[in-house]
Every structure is written in C-alpha cells, then in structure tokens.
Amino acid sequence: MLNSSSSLSSSSLILPDQRLERVEGWGMSAYGMSYVYRPVNAAGIEAAYDAARRSGKPIGMRGAGRSYGDASMNAEGVVLDMTRMNRILDWNPDTGIISVEPGVTIQQVWQYTIEDGWWPAVVPGTMYPTIGGCAGMDIHGKNNFKVGPIGDHILDFDIATPSGETLTCSRSQNTELFHAAIGGAGLLGVFTRLSLQLKKVYSGYLDVTAYAHSNFDELFEIFEECLPNSDYLVAWVDCFAKGDSLGRGNIHQAHYVKPGEDTSPAQSLRVVNQELPDSLFGVVPKSVMWRFMKPFWNDLGVKAINTGRYVGTSKIGHGARHRQSHAGFAFLLDYVPNWKYSYKPHGLIQYQSFVPADRAQEVFTTQLELSHKYGVVPYLGVFKRHRPDNFLLTHAVDGYSFALDYPVDPAKRGALLSLTAEMDRLVVEAGGRFYMAKDSTLRRESFQAAMGADRLSKFAAIKSHYDPEGIIQTNIYRRLFL
C-alpha cells in the first residue's frame, strides 16, 4: 500500500510548490493542501500518475468539486482536477447519444442538446457538476424512482487506470469494472470519455403541480398517490416544525409536456428561454443575494422563512399548476449563485440517508426529533423516492432518501457529530445506505455495515487488480474504506 503520510517537503523536487493549493469540499467545512494537476489530455493524466508514484504520494480524482465533504479531497497528496478536459466529442441529434470528456458539465450538455429536443435523463439539483464526477458518484435526480441514477443512462466509457491502461467499459465489455467504476468515487481510475443516452423532450417546459403537506403522514400518503403518474417528484421539508406538524412542507410534481401540447416548442426549447434569471425582479443582481440572506441565516431567521414558505403554499398554492422550464425546475440550487456563502464562516454539512420504504417514515421522523433534542436543526430538508440499481457501491434502496443541511457551528460541533452518529445507527439498523457525494461525518464501521462485507470485498479485489499499488486514494477513501 502506498505510503500517504510522508511530509510535504520531502516531495518538493518532484511535486513543485507552485502546484500546492488549498482544496476544500463544497460545503466549506473540510479542506486541505494538495498538489493539483489539471490535465488536458491522456498524456497529462499519465504525468500526474507518474508524479504521484515517484513522490510516494497518493492521487485523488476531482471534477467540479461539488461533493459536500471530502470525497474529492486528497490532503497532502496529488489531486487530479479534470475540469480542463471539457470537450463534447460527438453528438447525434437523431438518437440522443452524446460522447463527452469527463470535465464537461451538466450545463454544457443541456445547452448543447436542448434545441435539438433532448435533455439529460438524470440531473442533480445544480447544473455545474462534471459528467465524470456525476458518473463517479452515480448521481440521482428528482426522477430516480422512475429512471434510476445517471449510471443507468451511461452507455460506455473509457477509463485510464494507474497501470497505464485505458479500457473501454460497457454492459457487454469489461462489465465488472463498468459496474464498479460508476458510483466508485473515482477510486479505480479516471474517466477519459463517457457516452450517454439523453431523454427526448417535446417542449422546453414541464407541467408542475405544488402541494402542501402538513406532516410526515401526509407526505408519504401524497407521494405514494402521485408516484405512478409522475415524471418527477420531490418534497421540501420544514425541519423546524415539531409535534403534529413534524415533516410538513411542500411537494412538487412534474410531467413532461406531450407532443403537440406546446404550441411553440422551437421557442421554448431555445437555450435563452431556459436560462435562469440573473437578477431579482430585474433589479437586484442574484450574485449578491447571499449577502442579503446572511443576516437571516440563523435559527430564528430560517424558521421564519420556512414557516412563510409552507403557509404560502398551503393557503394559496396547494394544487396550483403551472409550466416551468426544465432548467428552472431542475436546478433550484442555482437560483441564487453562491448561496452557500450564507453558511460562512464555518460552512455546512449535508446528511443524506437512504432507507427502505417500510422503515423510512420511522427513521426520518426520529432523525428530526433527534435534531431538535441535540439543538442542531437542519436548515433544509429534501425528500425523494428511489429504486435499486445494479452498481456495486450503490447508495440506492427501494425506498426514500432524506437530505438534511446542517450549519456548522463550532460551539455545537460535538452535538452535531453525536447526532450524526446516532442517525447512522438508525439507518444501518433499518437496512439503509449512505451517499459518498454528500457525506462528511460517516464512520467506517457504519459505512461498512451499510454497504456489506461482500460488496466491499468485491470492490477491494477490483481495486487491487486495476490499482495494485494503491496509488488512488482520497480523504473519504481513507476514512471509510481502509
């Protein structure tokens, strides 16, 4: 196993100091110093592998750095930043198949294809992650219950392993590596090309219906009623509500517009008509909105905002239907640029758990009750339905997920860690899973219990085959796997 604990100075001749940078997780609560390489081609990837090997330091993969915690960090090691490998290699508007380099973003894909009537089959809540990063974490969207994760729409990929091989993988070629690398957190090699099947759309709009739910009972009831007839379904939960209102919030259901229902599809599918507005009311630039949010970004302020949002939907918005652009519905996290800065100076963590359907309400109810007990209440809760998939390190279950955004307060750090440890036990006991793209606090024993010895042993064998020196490591790998 590669020694990952040697000092920074011992490698200065091989890893020049000008490559040393501060690298942090997207949640701003985890960071470290790393030697960063930004290749533009296969030769640059091999050079970074070689530099890591000769310096005795591990190398970790990073896309746009949108993982909340330490999944794309490699403190005191080498980081391979893939954002400069960002070319669209091929596009077929007849079949909806696109081939891209790993640094291409979700934004690049949808802007390139939507005017031909195609949309990515699976997108996260933000358009800025890279396709390589999305594949490495096997991201899911608001339609996971219906179409699965992004991996279900990847046709094939090329992956450069530390041994110097570049292998093409698909469901019929190098299938074991295909199912291990998708969702494998970049621990088996670096994607150099990926081909995806996109979704045909006949309008730039979705038909969206909003519902208010008064507690968890109503949330689960409405979800189960809506699932068979939804293309997308997601709920926001007011985590400050207690008692009979625990779990209250808003549900958004969306359907694709059918052929012929949009009288001007050529216009609605134009990129300019999908772009999110860059100002509020056409006056205040959204780029500065986080500064206006920050004075209210405390328990009292967020509680008031959440109450207003719930009451507004329950009083005047329940059952209301409207049309919304694909980008407007999908990328809610992008409406206010840099909104995460409201959590400065200490950042946030997101805790996302996936629990089988028969235990989900019990577990999620207890998670919120524990949050109130520990005095650490999440500012945002997002609820989705999921289905299983065939990838080796999958986080998905036949059930539900609940993503909770917790502000990091140094005075409550101990309470937060105690809370997440207790929630981990609940999830594991219920047969649930965790998501490496979001994790910041998970402990090795909880992760390994949730994933299962058989899956982890199989992954370890695959990694040993394609990375026999153990050169690919990240913070989360050392924290959860070793």
List the SSEs and their pairings.
Elements: E1 20-24, E2 31-37, H1 42-55, E3 59-62, E4 78-81, E5 88-92, E6 97-100, H2 106-113, E7 118-119, H3 131-137, H4 144-147, E8 154-160, E9 166-170, H5 175-181, E10 190-197, E11 199-200, E12 205-213, H6 216-226, E13 232-237, E14 249-256, H7 265-268, E15 279-280, E16 284-285, H8 289-293, H9 299-317, E17 321-325, H10 326-330, E18 348-356, H11 357-374, E19 380-385, E20 399-407, H12 413-429, E21 433-434, H13 444-451, H14 453-466, H15 475-480
Parallel strand pairs: 2-4, 3-4
Antiparallel strand pairs: 1-2, 5-6, 6-10, 7-11, 8-9, 8-10, 12-14, 12-17, 13-14, 13-19, 15-16, 18-20, 18-21, 19-20
Give a brief rundown of this model.
This protein has helices at 42-55, 106-113, 131-137, 144-147, 175-181, 216-226, 265-268, 289-293, 299-317, 326-330, 357-374, 413-429, 444-451, 453-466, 475-480, and strands at residues 20-24, 31-37, 59-62, 78-81, 88-92, 97-100, 118-119, 154-160, 166-170, 190-197, 199-200, 205-213, 232-237, 249-256, 279-280, 284-285, 321-325, 348-356, 380-385, 399-407, 433-434. It has 482 residues and is an alpha+beta fold. Among the domains are: 9-83 and 464-480, Uridine Diphospho-n-acetylenolpyruvylglucosamine Reductase, domain 2 (2-Layer Sandwich); 88-200, Uridine Diphospho-n-acetylenolpyruvylglucosamine Reductase, domain 3.
Write up what this structure looks like.
This protein has 482 residues and is of the alpha+beta class. Among the domains are: 92 residues, Uridine Diphospho-n-acetylenolpyruvylglucosamine Reductase, domain 2, CATH 3.30.43; 113 residues, Uridine Diphospho-n-acetylenolpyruvylglucosamine Reductase, domain 3, CATH 3.30.465. It is 30% helix and 23% strand. The protein contains 15 helices and 21 strands. The strands form 5 sheets. Strands 17-12-14-13-19-20-18-21 form an 8-stranded antiparallel β-sheet, sandwiched between helices. Strands 5-6-10-8-9 form a 5-stranded antiparallel β-sheet. The N terminus is likely disordered.
